[in-house]
Write the structure tokens for this entry.
Amino acid sequence: MGERKFLAFDLGAESGRALVGILKEEKLIVEEIHRFVNKPVEILGRLYWNVPQIFQEIKEGINKAFSKYKDIESIGIDTWGVDFGLVTKEGYLAGLPVCYRDHRTDGILEKAFKVMPKERIYELTGIQIMQINTLFQLYSMVLENSSLFKSTHKLLFMPDLFNFMLTGEMRTEFSIATTSQLYNPIKDSWEEEIFEKFRIPIEIMPEVRMPGSEVGEICESIKREFNLKDISVISPCGHDTACAVASVPAEGEDWAYISSGTWSLMGVELKEPIINKDSFLYNFTNEGGVNKTFRFLKNIMGLWLLQSVRRVWIKEGTELSYSEITKLAESAKPFQFFIDPDDTSFLNPPNMVSAIKEYCEKTNQRIPETKGDISRCILESLAFKYKEVFESLEKTTGKKIKMLHIVGGGSQNSLLSQFTANILGIPVMVGPVEATAMGNIMIQAISREAIKDLSHGRRIIKNSFNPIIYYPKDTEIWEKEYKRYKEITK
């Protein structure tokens, strides 16, 4: 196999990156070309994504990539889910996209369930009920009587919006569409009943394409700006987690994954969605993936907690790296403080350190004071939350899971990986760190016939990094403390 090159943009809720994937001799080398901060901007009390700035950074990534490598075959973009931009018929943005952490959806669930019971919403979509979902963001606009609907031609999810800016084409992709709680995975279409009941105009929803489909050629203005020839823009999996899961170097069916970053997304890969009483009870989601698979998973708050306390400490004048924070956690006394990472008080508090202390006080625990105590509290609590989800995952799917794969940036936290192995009682394989970018590139490569299929791509990815496996330790102690965690957080 000759050398083939692809450009991936992996846009997260904290940072964005441009990476070139070089496919050579059954290995995939990923080179970061450009990195930038992605930070929402508060304007008059509302939190927006700075889309013009993000697009300028995408163009800078294109410039750097093609300046170094002239033979890049295609471009693919993945982003976080649920958020969207509204575009007019003339192709203008109808306002800036609002960030899912904005407070406009506070209290929205109670209002929404008066329109349609949550059981029916779940039955139609199979998506975990969360106030950040696109459905509830749109319903908050309906309740505001937003004038934006009048000027909207199409709703474009974040990767679709940037694909539109690159090509002029307005369409969406399966994996990102399914995150919205507007799509029916059984009917394989937008769910008319939801649009009708919530008074959302269904005509604003774009055509849905499968992962790996071509969006179009890069537009003339960008070609002129950077002196480029025709370049195809491929829609890999538009949702970053779908790209990450596509790259999990696993075989067989007795494995689960955690895509670990700002969020921890824990689940299994299935050929069909599971929508029943148990999946509703445990609030599991059925999100689309590559090859029309489904990611049966649950969103867990994840390393957002650690990122947020770090920001508080920086404001207070102490700048610690994540490795330094982990060392502080490692040296702290174990099992002193527990929180439920998914408690709504941790979604976007003004001060995460204060929110953790308040939670401990509210649940009649001692209050953590040191940075080590707070950090260890977060990591232990995340591991216990993983156990809680793991148990319900096995129960709902009927699977006996024998191996957990942790992929993404959070897989670099060795302490959390060891804690996870300890409480789950099974081996935990970590890596690749660049799972999302690798999945993005792999799907582009399959589309361009540089890789045969998903199985072939996963073998290539497994060849391309050195996995680390963590084995369980001190399982009896962890099981005992897990019972105490459940009592405190119930």
Remarks:
- The two ends are 55 Å apart (CA to CA).
- The domain at 248-431+452-490 is CATH 3.30.420.40 (Nucleotidyltransferase; domain 5).
- The chain is about 40% helix and 20% strand.
- The mean pLDDT is 96.
